[in-house]
Amino acid sequence: MYNFTYHRASSVSDAAKLLGQDAESKILAGGQTLLPTLKQRLAQPSHVVDIGGIGELQGIKVSADKVVIGAGTRHAAVAMSAEVARAIPALAKLAGGIGDPQVRNMGTIGGSLANNDPAADYPAAVLGLGATVHTNKRAIAADDFFKGMFETALDDQEIITSVEFPVPQKAGYMKFPNPASRYAMVGVMVAQTKAGVRVAVTGAGPSVFRWQDAEKALASKFAAAALDGLAAKADGLNSDMHGSAEYRAHLIGVMARRAVAEAG
Amino acid sequence: MSDTGIGAAVRRKEDFRFLTGKGHYTDDINRPGQAYAYFLRSPHAFARIRKIDTAAAKAAPGVIAVYTGADTNAAKVGSLPCGWVVTGKSGEPHKAPAHPPLAVDTVRYVGDHVAVVIAESRAQAKDAAEKIAVDYDVLKPVISVTDAAKPGAPQVHADVPGNICYDWEIGDKAATDAAFAKATHVTKLDLVNNRLIPNAMEPRAAICEYDSGVDSYTCFVTNQNPHVLKLILCAFVLGLSESKLRVVAPDVGGGFGSKIYCYAEETVLLWASKHVGRPIKWAAERSESFLSDAHGRDHVTHAELALDKDGKFLGFRVATLANVGSYLSTFATAVPSYLYATLLAGQYTTPAIHAEVKTVFTNTAPVDAYRGAGRPEATYVLERIVEVAARETGIDRAEIRRRNFVPPDAFPYQTPVALAYDSGNYAAALDLALKHADYKGFAARKVEAEKRGRLRGIGLSCYIEACGIAPSAVVGALGAGVGLWESGQVRFNPTGSVTIHTGAHSHGQGHETTFAQLVSDTLGVPIENIEVVHGDTDKVPFGMGTYGSRSLAVGGSAIMRACDKIITKGKKIAAHLMEAAVEDVEFSKGVFKVSGTDKNVSMQQVAFTAYVPHNYPEGLEPGLDETAFYDPLNFTFPAGTHVAQAEIDPQTGVTEVVNWVAVDDFGNVINPLIVEGQVHGGIAQGIGQALLEGCVYDPESGQLLTGSFMDYCMPRADDLPSFKVDTTKTPCPHNPLGVKGCGEAGAIAAPPALINAVTDALGIMHMEMPATREKVWRAARSGPLKRAAE
């Protein structure tokens, strides 16, 4: 790890101010990506702004039509929240399947989304459930948030403050983990929402994306059988030693059908 | 049987300290004034070093010294040797190119050692290493063993033409050709034994120091055989007197073979410790373990099995290319020859066998023994081709094996590939395994699985292994540079407690319990009064260490011989105390008695008398401390049957191992709990090899693609079923304990059992390991294939 200056921000505005002082500053949330990257000397930030102690970023608020999760909320808190499990069981399940217990006890939803790892689980929840990402500057719709591999709509001094999930009528998440890393090789969130059916796929491509053919098929009938014969396209999907694009495309279909079945 | 004696499932004495964090591993040890080393490694698979500029690194904060191959070369630090000379077909010894601990003018694999930085802290050493400027002339590397063996391949070493280390054969080629000429059926198979990275839980580490007051060195190191390392470092690399080096291998967190060897790191540290006058510590980061621990397996094989009309095996023909990596590791040459091809008879009476092995240099990390070492490769070839032969001939997979077993009355059995099996009853293990696995009920279970959309398969593996490699004279004749005996010392303390010194080394095997059980049972000393000391060359008599499932069969036998000497001497002391003739004294359960009387003295009393010899036999030396060196008469031959059952989800290619039966013949069992644990770990590694693990280098650049646990897939608890483990018993006839060795059996038996099950489920003849989800999905999608290889 290279040397850097460490700051512990007391508030979101304090964090934004600290970030603004140097272009090479980085936010430290749960540290599950940043710290290994630093240890491997793959990043060399000048300043690290730790937002882990900011109280306003914590907490889960569940109402009749939405679940709002503070950006600093750990995965384990979401996974174990009885309220989340009642309102959006697929979301609690997704959070409970991220990484391992150590990762879930440190990693945060805001950190995961800001990082936008192509194989992370949370982007599938946000895009699949049609969530809104709130920052210290604005509200960003899920469809506008994810821009590409490790890229989001956030600007340099923008900090995610919370994520607002509308409660769907039904939702299911199914993940096919990479056997080594246990990241998603393919993860599919399907949801029947007031705004229509949404199908979001993570792990398979350079960034989370919506599978619109499946959404159309499910809109006419929200049942696994509606996806029979429907194949995701392999073009543009990830291909590596763990799985070819063709295999991933196939798995998208399998996981989508299983997610629909689980949604009930 | 007492509750702590031979045969008792005693919980491991050593686990208290391991489970409470009180173990003392190498990196837990800190020496006064200790400095830290960091090795700069090659980022290229193959490159000439034009120039190394260390000036900026030497000037960096906290840096004490920076050394390169030019420095070690100038100081005449020797080449890291290979300890087994294999003689090829032509009568030529193997090619052993120079293996400098720090690269001199060429780097030959990603991770090769370029320079060492010694600094006040690890971070400073690492920071400074980034300031070393190396001017490389990058060359085209050769990565796969098949590419390296091709004419015109890049030459890894200028003095090794064609990259061939040796071209070796065993068995009778003419007899084998004749057997094939009369065969009614020939089964052919091409297979790859996938390269593995060992991944012991504890990464390698060392602390080396020089004491100028007495001109001697100490090396604390993660090693499985400290005396052997000491011998190599002193006699072959650094030219030191062995009386001037103490090697200590303290608690070691797993080895699996990868800690047998003499590595560059401890060699350089030991040399440098005198130059800098400070103790120096190095501990591998996990990524360094991936890059530079000796890897395992990596064979490419073509095999042919000749059968008669009844399915009897007539002949077996094998040609293997084995990757030894960039340099020869300490025992690299023995693994694909004497530890591999000598096992190709398996449990069968195949009368004619011929095997050819070419070992090949490539621009990859050195390859050496890894749990099983040659025997998993042999078992995989044989148990796969037997399975394919059964499918091709339509003979039941169990029946074809049974027809060919060496029968129980044929022992000792001389195979056509050098080994003479001592004892066994292969059908007994097969029968018991089939019963545990409910073999007869399998067809119904397959149908039931199909209703759930799952493809169910069953696979057998009837393996044999050779453990406790010996005798020394024989292995010497085959090229070994060392003897393969073991030492054991049983020392009574004056008040009756016992300290055992063993030349074996425990790095997870539970010796502190098993050896204590032996002595407790034999000498009648309570187990809590017995301690086992190992791993310190200043404390323990010269010994050969632990690998090849040898510790109990060889090391335990040495301890038993030492116990015999204790009893012999104890009888003399007891006879004197009881005023009886020595020949009238009997010993049992810790008590010396005069036959036919109730006169007796305890072992404790005898031990005390030996150290306080006020009333003592005239002419007898005081003390009760005996050492024995045991050189076995033969290998031991554990064998057994494993039955794997797997279910495949054809939609995703996920293979679930749903049932596992292991029936092993380890001869007599001292501690069934430890044996079961060893079997479990071995099976887990075997399942890892079959389904999950595979070292992948980029074929063009030679970069290690599976360089972390993100990409190298280790088996985890949720990948494994509960194992049904049972044993049969034919005691080893030639060692005093009747034991055979259990440490590697699971890793040897498991891979073919599971691949046989997976291919059975899919209705195909063969699938290369690891049987990844994508491969299985593709096979399930394309349906059964008819023939594996032509």
Q: How would you portray this structure in words?
A:
The complex is a heterodimer of chains A (264) and B (790). With 264 residues, chain A is an alpha+beta fold. Among the domains of chain A are: 1-50, 2-Layer Sandwich (Uridine Diphospho-n-acetylenolpyruvylglucosamine Reductase, domain 2); 170-263, Enolase-like, domain 1 (2-Layer Sandwich), CATH 3.30.390. In chain A, 33% of the residues lie in helices and 25% in strands. Chain A contains 11 helices and 14 strands. Chain A has a 5-stranded antiparallel beta sheet with strand order 4-5-10-6-7. The longest helix of chain A has 19 residues, at 245-263. Chain A starts with a strand and ends with a helix. By secondary structure, chain B is α+β, with helices and mostly antiparallel strands. Chain B folds into 3 domains: 18-139 and 201-254 and 259-292, Aldehyde Oxidoreductase, domain 3 (Alpha-Beta Complex); 299-469 and 634-782, Aldehyde Oxidoreductase, domain 4 (2-Layer Sandwich), CATH 3.30.365.10; 485-630, Aldehyde oxidase/xanthine dehydrogenase, molybdopterin binding domain (Aldehyde Oxidoreductase, domain 4), CATH 3.30.365. A 7-stranded mixed beta sheet of chain B has the order 3-5-1-12-9-10-11, sandwiched between helices. Chain B has a 5-stranded mixed beta sheet with strand order 7-15-14-13-8, sandwiched between helices. In chain B, β9 and β10 form a beta hairpin. Chain B starts with 14 loop residues before the first helix and ends in an 8-residue tail after the last helix. The model of chain B is unreliable at 785-790 (pLDDT under 50). Classes of the chains: A alpha+beta (264), B alpha+beta (790). Chain A binds chain B through residues 1, 40, 176, 179-181, 183, 241-244, 247, 250-251, 254, and chain B through 123, 287, 651-653, 692, 696, 705-706, 709-714, 719, 772-774, 777-778.
